[in-house]
Automatic annotation (TrEMBL):
Pfam families: Peptidase_S26. The lineage of its organism: Bacteria, Candidatus Shapironibacteriota. SUPFAM superfamilies: LexA/Signal peptidase. It is an enzyme of class 3 (hydrolase). GO terms for cellular component: membrane. Its EC number is 3.4.21.89. Residues 10-87 form the Peptidase S26 domain. The chain crosses the membrane at residues 12-31, 140-161, 182-201. This is Signal peptidase I. It comes from Candidatus Shapirobacteria bacterium GW2011_GWE2_38_30. It is found in: Membrane. InterPro entries: LexA/Signal_pep-like_sf, Peptidase_S26, Peptidase_S26B. Keywords: Membrane, Transmembrane, Transmembrane helix.
């Protein structure tokens, strides 16, 4: 949401620069025969037209001008000045001569305005914009309000283009790495299969499984059980029996497990961070550990993060992990395209092996 707001502000600022630049160069544009703009520098027409406004006029045949119209005309006292006043009366029609008056003046103007002096009829005014336009027409104002913002806009556009290029490059690299990993796994699998095929047959242990629910992921609890052996003189070391359970299934035969109320994993609404939360968790012993691996899909690519939880000194702990692609200090989140999030946790707590795997809930 913040990125959208900043984008809107960026384009509004750019539009403002274009408008101000248009006002500055409007006197030399080829469509002066259709409309003209003037900066109102005095208060003779207040409150109708504020001082510091930009006034827009359009050409009008002098014969259509009537009493009460606001017109721009060349000053009879100084042809270099343009006056914007209201028609107070039509003195004569042949030749066409007008008398004018400012709304804020007590008496009509002392001069007479001929039809050939009329520039155009008032259409609309934009308050306060004239002050900015006057400042821009000065060298310092042009640099501060046109050149500097334009350079900043260009800089940010170049920055965004470079970020997009980095993203595409990283995307290609990840795709290539994924292909390499596939071939590596295939070679390892073939090698292991060859070893197993040529090895003598050993004893087989059976594992009984049951299920229990813990908030949206799978739980496996390992419990020692004796393993039979074909030699009566040897007593084998007890091997673990696995209990598998989906957290969302409240009807597991296995029943309640202590891990159920101690751990949660979910994504924030914007999907930029995954959050792990431990509640009153037993502190780690010397040999205890928990490792995690989170796999998700983004832009049709499989991505993942991994790490370990350190609960030696914390029984209540919240951990947030960023999901995205980083290049140096510049990171791009994947939150717009994250799907199929799966979490797996393996470790040992108080001599009990813990093994979890399943989907992560969205907050």
């Amino acid at each position: 949401m913040l990125k959208i707001i900043l984008k809107i502000i960026e384009w509004l600022a750019f539009a403002g620069i274009l408008i101000l630049l248009f006002i500055v160069i409007s006197p030399v544009l080829p469509f002066n025969n259709f409309a003209k703009s003037f900066i109102v520098v005095s208060g003779s027409m207040e409150p109708s037209i504020k001082t510091g406004s930009i006034a827009i006029t359009r050409p009008i045949p002098p014969s259509q001008i009537k009493k009460g119209d606001i017109v721009a005309f060349t000053s009879p006292d100084n042809p270099k000045n343009t006056i914007l006043h209201r028609i107070d009366s039509v003195k004569s029609t042949d030749p066409l001569i007008f008398l004018t008056k400012g709304d804020n003046n007590n008496a009509p103007d002392s001069w007479e305005v001929s039809s050939i002096a009329v520039i155009g009829s008032y259409v609309y005014s934009i308050p306060y914009l004239g002050n900015a336009a006057s400042f821009i027409r000065q060298p310092l104002g042009f640099v501060l309000m046109i050149v500097v913002p334009a350079l900043l806009f260009i800089f940010f556009q170049i920055f965004n283009i470079n970020r997009a290029i980095d993203y595409e490059v990283n995307k290609k690299i990840e795709e290539k790495n994924r292909q390499n990993n596939f071939f590596s796994i295939l070679i390892i699998a073939l090698s292991v299969s060859s070893i197993i095929a040529t090895s003598p047959i050993k004893n087989v242990n059976a594992f009984f499984s049951d299920t229990s629910q813990i908030s949206g992921i799978n739980l496996t609890t390992i419990i020692p059980t004796p393993t039979p052996t074909i030699t009566p003189t040897a007593t084998p070391t007890p091997k673990p029996t696995g209990y598998h359970c989906r957290f969302r299934d409240w009807h597991c035969n296995f029943g309640h497990h202590w891990f159920k109320d101690k751990f949660r994993a979910f994504l924030r609404k914007n999907h930029q961070y995954v959050k792990f939360h431990f509640y009153n968790f037993p502190k780690f012993g010397p040999k205890d550990y928990l490792n995690y691996e989170l796999v998700y899909r983004s832009h049709d690519l499989e991505k993942g993060i991994s790490g370990s939880f350190d609960l030696k000194n914390n029984s209540n702990l919240e951990i947030e992990q960023f999901l995205g692609t980083c290049s140096g200090t510049d990171c791009t989140p994947d939150f717009k395209s994250i799907t199929s999030v799966t979490l797996s946790i393996k470790g040992e707590i108080n001599s009990e092996a813990i093994e979890l795997e399943g989907p992560v809930d969205f907050e």
